[in-house]
Amino acid sequence: MIVNISEAKASLSKLVNMAYHGEKVVIAKNNLPLVDLVVHKPEGKRKLGLLAGQFVVPDDFIDEDEAINEMFYDRKS
Prior knowledge:
Distance between the termini: 63 Å
């Protein structure tokens, strides 16, 4: 179902209910489709520490690299 913005403003509750029950609702402007009205899908909680113990950060991780400094700054460190 394609609905122009002005009609969508007037019947938003009806359109939300239709999308919630699985009908495809497209909102258009001057009959040009702009957006789809879709049901919200919760993302769930983020799980912290998911990769703990799966990689090791090298001891020289924050050390400067002379070649990279020359490329970026055209000078030696």
